[in-house]
Amino acid sequence: ESNANLEEVIAVAKQLQ
């Protein structure tokens, strides 16, 4: 699912902040 891919990107973005 592309949704799972999107949430994975969001999780990485949170770690970078």
Q: Can you describe this structure?
A:
This protein has one helix and no strands. The protein is an all-alpha fold and 17 residues long. The N and C termini lie far apart (26 Å). The protein is rod-shaped and about 25 Å long. Helices cover 88% and strands 0% of the residues. It has one helix at 2-16. The model has no long low-confidence stretch (mean pLDDT 94).
What is this structure's SSE topology?
Elements lengths: L1 H15 L1
Strand content: under 5%
The low-confidence runs, each spanning 5 or more residues with pLDDT under 50, are none
Shape: rod-shaped
Strand count: 0
The percent range for helix content is over 70%
Helices, by number, come to 1
Question: How widely separated are the two ends?
Answer: 26 Å
Largest sheet geometry: none
Give me a quick take on this structure.
By secondary structure, the chain is an all-alpha fold. The protein starts with a helix and ends with a helix. The chain has one helix spanning 2-16.
Describe the structure using short key phrases.
17 residues, mainly alpha, 0% strand
